Amino acid sequence: MRAVDELIGLLGAAHVLTGADTGPYVTDWRGRYSGRPLAVVRPGSVHELADVVKWCAARGVPMIPQGGNTGLCGGATPDETGRALLVVLTRLNAIRAVDTGNDTMVVEAGCTLQAVQQAAHDADRLFPLSLAAEGSCTIGGNLATNAGGTQVLRYGTARELVLGLEVVTPQGEIWNGLRGLRKDNTGYDLRNLYIGSEGTLGFITAATLKLFPRPVAQCTALLALPSIEAAVAMLARARKGFSAALTAYELIAANCLQAVVECFPEQRLPFDDAARAAPWFALLELSDSESEAHARERFEAVIGDALEAGLVSDAAIAASATQSRALWRLRESIPLAEKAYGKNVKHDISVPASRMAEFVATTNAALQAAHPGVEHVIFGHLGDGNLHYNVACGTAYTEEALLARQSEIHALVHDRVHAFGGSISAEHGIGQLKRDYLPRYKDAVELDLMRRIKAALDPQGIMNPGKVLPG
To answer: Which residues form the FAD-binding PCMH-type domain (predicted)?
Structure first.
């Protein structure tokens, strides 16, 4: 094929894949979306990528950016036409610079999140973005979806951890915006335009990231709770008692942890039988800049008061880093346990924390009325109002029967989210999965502005077509 030969001329045969060799790249992590690309290309530098983009722009060839392929909304998967070029950025994986004086680092888009965290650690700094997929997800993908994770409560989403970007435009131009400045009022904020755009406006190829001091001490606890109302009240107490030192607060339904210990028998819940029967759990973490003793004193005082007040029925406080990792492993294993049990109907939603209990109770009731017997699989980042509100087969449905009701379930849940002043996408993006829901929930003027931005930056419509914006 002439097109493939020309691409080989740009990148070399080892980095232009066709046929069966494209297999690892063409299906999303959940197995929901699969496509057929013209080819998979793996540029090794920003200039090679720019050459590929110019080649595509000259021929009107669509381009699909992909990092670690861990996305959950089909945002990095080609369609079935065989026209699009799937552009994998994992070879752009250099840590270009670490500046401890400015508390910044410049990294390329193909670096795994774990590699970035390690580079920061090696420099005695912290890069706080933390996700279950951090060993395989890439910084480019994290920024393309404005990833959240477990420490948004203290440090914010990916967008808030970035000072500058390098971007290849849909025309093959290279924008060098890697300035490591915390104040720069020289025009439009292009950085924030590209972050969260899911590759529909250009290729993020590198970023200047913020670094933070590493905490002197961390304390972790798993709390057994009688209700979501108690979890919200405990969050308020933790915020008052710990202030900015509260770095994580995760809400977990009991059936999620039960699924983890059933799928992974080496993991255990650190409670007696009475506490294991609690309907809800919270995993919270304090990061202290003073001392281990200071952290432990604050931690035990706040949790002790909550136990006395009846907000918490039991608490397992990690006594070591090993025990802390074990508690976090329980939380991080929930998506793997979900996957082991089969497909379910997933929702990545946000609702004001103050209304979370009412939202869950009323939405659960509405789902049971419409689809009796479904199972509610609920966990997420209560500290920033983000829940993974998933609906599983339970004992009433087969996987096929549940997925046949998927559109109805999505509509019901999303309508409820909208009624509560929430968002149908908190941290996973839009991709293909939620693209066609946007007109129902997004302001028409806002959606039109998004279309105009897309048309201005990508007039050919070749950057990740079919994602984010409805047709």
So the answer is: 33-214
